[in-house]
Amino acid sequence: MKKKNRVCSSEEFSAFIKNYSSVKSPSFAVYYHPRKEDEARIGITLPKKIGNAVVRNKIKRQVRMMCQDIVNFSEYPCDIIIIVRFGFKDHTYSDNKKLLEKLLNKDKIIHCNTKENI
Fold this sequence. Notes:
Blueprint: H1 10-19, E1 21-24, E2 28-34, E3 42-45, H2 53-70, E4 78-84, H3 93-104, H4 107-110, H5 112-115
Parallel strand pairs: 3-4
Antiparallel strand pairs: 1-2, 2-4
């Protein structure tokens, strides 16, 4: 995933979590908002209780690869924050990828430009 397609600042993460809509599964919580830039951006975060830094970085790399396979950044309508939940470790990579794909392709997110602008 390219740097321009990432949400990096903690202020943006906080704003997403406080103000915008979400969908959830056992492995992920996804917060979304209509994009403001030319391409969609994705931010990935997870709690420290999931594991040490090595484990968390491995999970982030896996989620980035999942997003790169699932999302076409130039056409996707929303900016997204993905929060990895504790259920992530209970599933395999392919199961988690299917769960994330299902969440990212929900009608709520695909049509987020309609009602979420307010």
